[in-house]
Fold these 4 entries.
Entry 1:
Amino acid sequence: MQAKARVAVHKFASCDGCQLAFLNLGETLVRLADLVEIVHFAEAGPLAFDEHVDVAFVEGSISTSHDEQRIRQVRANCTHLVTIGACATAGGVQALRGMADTKAWVEGIYASPEYIDSLATSTPISDHVRVDLELWGCPVNARQVLGALRALLSGFMPPEEEDKVCLECKRRQAVCVMVAHGIPCMGPVTRTGCGALCPSFGRDCYGCYGPAENLNTASLSRRLEGIGLVREEIARRYLFINNGAPQFRQAGLAAKEKTDE
C-alpha cells in the first residue's frame, strides 16, 4: 500500500484567516485526510513541528528573531514550501512597520518595551528561505489551496494566476464600478483569484490579491486623482494589505511624496 503524502500547516505573524481556508473545507477536509496525512496543523489539532513533510503550507510573516529560526526549520523539514496569503507572500499589513521607527513606537506603547521581541520589519517568507509556490490573497480560498495541493502531489507546479481583476469582471459580466459609478477601484492593477468578488457586489476592489503582471500604477493613480481622491488617499490604496509588494510599495510612496511636497 502506497504511503500517504504528508502535509503540514504552519503559522507565523498573521490573523489565522488563511488557515480557515482549510478548516472551512468541512467534509472535503475529512475526505482530504483520507488521501494525505496532516502531520502538523496547530489550529486543527495535530502537533509535530519537526516531522518531515511533502508539502508545508505557511501562513504569516516573519516579525521576530524566533520566527527567523523557525522558518529555516520548516524549510529544512519539507519538500515543497507554499506560502498562503498576503502576510506570507508580501509581509501583510504589518509590513507598514518597515516605514516607521519601530523602536520609538514600541517604547511609546509598552510600559516595559525591553520584553517585546520584535524585529524592525515584517517580511515575507521568501526574504528568508526558498519558496516553491506563492498563493496570494487575504485570505486565500479553498480552490487555491486544494488546486495547489493536487498539482504538487501530481508532480507539477500549478499555473500562476496573474490576470487582472478587470479581466475577471468582464468574464463574469460584472458592471465596472469605476466606469459606471465613479467608485475608486484597484482592479486594474490587482491580480485575480478572488473571482472578482467585491466588484460583483458593486464594491471596489481593494487589492487584497496583490499586484498583477504588467500593471500600470501611474495610469491608475492619475485615474483615481481624476475621480477625486487626494494623493494621501491614493497612497493608502497602495500601502494597505499588500504594501510590502514592491510594485504597490513604490506606487504608494510616489503618491505619498507628492502629498508631502
Entry 2:
Amino acid sequence: MSGLAGCAGELGGGEEEEDFPTQDIEMICPWAAGGGTDLTGRRLAELGQDPLGTSLYVTNQTGGSGSAGFNAIANAEADGYTVGITTVEICTISHLGIADVTPEDLDAVIQYNFDPATLTVPGDAPYSTLEEFVTYAEENPGEIRVSNSGTGAIWHLSAAGFAQEAGIELSHVGYDGGSPATQAVVSGEVEATAASAPEVAGQVQDGPLEILAVFGEERLDMFPEVPTLQESGYDFTMGAWRGLTVPQGTDEERISTLEEGFTSVYESEDFQSFMEEQGFGLVYRDAEEFGQFMESEYERFGGIIDELGLAQSG
C-alpha cells in the first residue's frame, strides 16, 4: 500500500495482522447506475486508488428503496473491504416499515455531500412557475404524478412534505434512483420529479425540463435564477446527503485508514472540481461527526414520517 499506515491489530495467538488494505475494495451503491450516488461513488473509487494503494470498484445493488444495498453493506464481512455509498434513506426506511436496517448496523467513515431537492417539470407543462404548479394541483388533485427514487426515499419525502406544506394532493411514483426518476419525466410517464439539481441538470440545460423551485435554504450556483421554496412563501427545506460507511463492527484502525484515504480524496482538487462541475454540494464530516449526524437524522426523519402519515405506506 502507499501513504497510509497499515493496520497493526493482532490475530489470535499474538500474530500481527498484515497491512490493510491488501485486497481490492468493493463499494456498494444502493442506487441505479447514472444517478448522483453512483456518479459520486465512482469518482471516489477512481480517486481513492492512489491514497489507499489498492483497486476500488463499484457494484450497484438496487431495490427496496435502497434497502437491498444497505442490507448488503450491513451483512458484508466487517473486514474493511466492503464500503457502502450510503444515503439519507438509511435513516428513513425502517421508519416506513420497508426494511429493518438502520444506522446502527453501519459504522461511519466520512460524509462528503448534501444536495437539496428540486421541483422539476417539462418545459411545455401547463405551469411555468411554482405558483402556477400549486394552482394547477389545487384544481386537479392527484393528477400530477411526481417521480422519486423509491418509496420512502428522500425525493419521495421531499415531494410529500412539500405537498403537505402547500396543501395540495400529488401522486408519487417510485423508481430505482434519481436517473430513472428524471427519465420518467422526459418520457412523459410522470409530470414532475423532486430529484436533485445534478440529477436533472443535463435535461434542464440541454433538454426539455425546467426547474420551478429548489428545496434548500439558498439558491444554487448552477441555477441561480431558480427561487427557493422559502422565497415563494413555503417554510420547507429538504435534501439528500451522501457518505461512506462500513459494516458495524469493522476494526477501528481499518476505519481510520479508510477515513484518512477518502478524506484526502475529498480535499483533492480533482474531486472538488468534479463535484462543483456536476453541481453536487460539498459537505464534509469525519467518522465521528458523521456517525453522530446519522443518529440525529434517524430521529429527525422518524418524526417527519410520522407527521406525514407515511409510516404505513411501505
Entry 3:
Amino acid sequence: MAHGTPAPSSESTGNPLERTAGSGLSLGLLFWLFMLAAVAATLYARRAWWLPPLAVREGASIDRLIEITLGVTGAAFLLVHVLLGYFVIRYRTRGQPRAHYFPHNTPLEVLYTAVPAAVLVSLSVAGLMTWSRLHAPPPPDAFLIEIRGQQFSWSARYPGPDGKLGRVDPRIPQPFNVDPQDPASRDDVTSSEIYLVVNRPAHILLRSRDVQHSFWVPAFRLKKDLLPGRTTELWLTPTRTGTFDIACAELCGVGHYTMHGQVRVVTQQEFDRWIGQQAQRR
C-alpha cells in the first residue's frame, strides 16, 4: 500500500458476504423496476400512440388477434420478471448452505414445454385462420377499383357504367397501360383521388408503374405490396365515412417519404355524384 494512503476500514467496505447479498437484492429490485417501467410505457403508448380507430370490417379480426397476442405475451413477461426478481432476492447469497441441486424434473419440464407450445400453436392457428379469411375471394358484388402507385404518388381507375375495367398491357404507354382497343376501357375513369363507398365491399387491384411499392392504410389495418409487371389484389369493406391516410410501406426511392395520399370513404350518393363529375372531365 502506498505511503500516506489510508487503509479501508471494515465498516466502509463491509463484509464480502453482505456486499454480495446487497447486490442480489439490488438486482432483484432492478428486475421489478424494469417490469413496472415496461408496463407504464405500454399503458402510456396505448393512450398516445396506439392504433387509429378501425375503419373496415375485415380489420376487426386483426385487432382482436393483436390484443390476444399482446395479452398472452404481456402475461408471460410479467410472470417471468416477477419470478426472476423473487428468486434473485429470495436465494441471494446470505451465508446459508448451498442450494439444493437436481439435474431434472420430468413433470416440471413437460409443463413448461407443453404450455408455451400449446399457446404458440393456438396463436399460429388463429393467425392462419385470419389470413385465410382476408385472402378469400371477394364478394361477387364488390366494387372494382384499380389503384396505381408510382414514384411518388397514388392514382386510381374506376370502371364506367359497364362495371368493367379495360384490359391492361404493359407495352402500351402511360397512363395506366390501358388497351384502347378494348371496348371495356372506353368508359374507364381515372383520377388522382381515391374514393370508396361506405358499407360496400371494394375489390382493389394494385399495380405499380415503376418500382415496388406497398399500399398501407393504418386505419384499414391492411397492407399489400405493388409489384412491377404484376397485379396484386385486396378487398375490404369500409365501415365509416371519412378521409384516411395512405402510406407507402416499401422503400421505393429517394422521395419515398413524400409518397403519401388519402382514401376518401363516402356514401353511395356522394360517390355517384363525384364519379359523374370525373367522367365529364375525360
Entry 4:
Amino acid sequence: MISRRDILSSAALLGGAVLAAPVKRADAALPPGLSQPTATPRGPLPYTPVITPNGGSLPWIMDGNVKVFHLVAEEVKREFAPGMIVNAWGYNGLTPGPTIEAVEGDRVRIFLTNRLPERTSAHWHGIILPNGMDGVAGLLQPHIEPGETYVYEFVVRKPGTFMYHPHSDEMVQMALGMMGFFIVHPRVHERVDRDFAIMLMEWAIAPGTARPNPAVMTDFNIFTFNSRVWPGTAPLVVKKNDRVRIRLGNLSMDNHPIHIHGHNFEITGTDGGRIRESARWPETTVDVPVGTTRDIEFLADNPGDWPFHCHKSHHTMNAMSHEIPNLIGVKQGSVEQKVRKILPGYMAMGENGMGNMMDMGRPKNTLPMMAGDGPFGPIEMGGMFTVIKIREGLTDYSQDPGWYKHPEGTVAHKVDPSKVPPIAPIAMAAPASATATSSAPAAGTPAAGTPAGRASGEPPPPPRR
C-alpha cells in the first residue's frame, strides 16, 4: 500500500536525482538531462545495460527496497535527421520515451506527471501486474488530467522486453510518439555484450509541416528507428565476437520485417517472455507485428559495416508522394524541355528509376526520399535503416569507428568487358500441364520441355562461344 508520505518522499528524492544526474551527451539527438545508462545512481549494475540508440534510459533512485522512476508526458521537438524537426509528444523530452530498466523481482514505483494539453495514462504493455496498475483509463483508473501526477507501483516478476504507452486517446497520443521500452533483466545474468533497443514507428507528416497527422490510418510517409531516419540513425557499434541482442518494439500501424546482413540470428524473446532454446531456429529476417516485441541474438563474428533495416522497401524511404504517376520507361525528354521553359529547374520524375533523385529540391522541414553517402557513393536509403559496425580490437564503444576498411581483394569491383563470360541460357522448367499428362518417354525420346537430342535428367550443354 502506498502512503501519501511515501509518494511525497519518493518524488522529492527522485526530483533531486534527476536534477543531479550527470549529463553525458552521447549524441546530438539526446536532449539535456538524459544520459546513456552507463551513468547510474547506485554503482555497478547486475546486468548489461540496454543501449537505446539516439535515446537513453530513465534515471532512478532507491527508496528503501523500491526502485523509483519519474516519467513526464509532454510535447517534444524531435529531430528525425538533420533538416527535419517534428513537433511530437513523448516523455522526458524524448520520443520514444526513455527506456525503463529493472531486474526480475524488483518493486518499481513510477510517477507519471502530465504536462500535455489533454488527459493521459500509462499502460505497461506485457507486464504481469495487479489489475488496477494496468493503466487503461476509464476502465481501471481515472484519466490523468493536465497538471496531475499519478503513481503506479508493482513487482516485475517476469524478465523480458516490454513497452509503455498511453491508454487515453491512444490514437492521437501514440500517433504523435508516446511510447517507450520497459526492460526487465533476468535475476540470473545471461551473457550478452551489447544490448540494443529499437522502437519501430511510422508517421504521416505532410512535406513542409512538422506535426504528425494522427487521422492517417495506412498511408504513412516517414518510417523511423527510435524516431530517427537514415542518415540520422546512430550506428550499432560492436566488437568482433560480441554476443549481441537487439530488442525491437512495434507500436506503429504495420508489421515490419527487420533484416540483418552478413549474419544469422535467433529470435530469443517476445513481449510474452523468453523463448526456450529448443524452440529457436536461425533467421536473417524477423517480422515484428503491431503491438509486440521481438528479441534477436547473434554472435558478431563477421567484421564489416552490415545494414540493418526494414525489408518493406517503402519503409527505407523518406518523405515522398504516393500519388505520383508511374513514369518509369516513359520518354519525357521533349516534354521536360517544354516544361522547363515555364518552370526553370523542372526535372522529369523517374524516367529511368529514382536512384539519382537524392536531393532534387523540396519544401522546408522535409527530408530527401533517399539520403546519406557511404565510402562508395550515395547509399540511396532512408527511413528504417542503420548500420551495425563490427570491428576487431575495438576498445571504445562510444566512438563511431568510421567506415570499414576492407581487406584487399574482398570488395566487388568493375571488370574489363573482355573478361566477362558469356551469359548462359536458362534451362526452363517443363510446363506443369505437360509434366502432369505425359507418360515416361520411350528410350531415346526426349521428354516434354527437353531439347531434342538430350534425354531428361541430363545437364544442359555448355553455352556456345
